[in-house]
Amino acid sequence: MGALMAELPRVRRGPLESLYAALRRRAPQVAAARPARDGDGVRVAYRGQTATVVWDDDLDAYVWDSEPGGQIGPDAEKAAELIAWTLATPAGPR
To answer: CA-to-CA distance for 62 and 11, rounded, in angstroms?
Structure first.
């Protein structure tokens, strides 16, 4: 069993991974890229519009990295819907 466990990929957990998963569920038409390393944000794009969303530890909320002071909120599901709305996409499954 130990050898099998060593072969399993490391599962990342945290607010940005939760946002990425919520975007896949709520707004599958939005191109989303997971953070490449710690400190990076989730890059989102739709029809030529791009943005980056990061987690702000001080606010305990998602914020637009490209728009200073642009708070999104702490809930990943609602953040995914707001991101989709901001990028003018049709909302995904509800």
So the answer is: 21
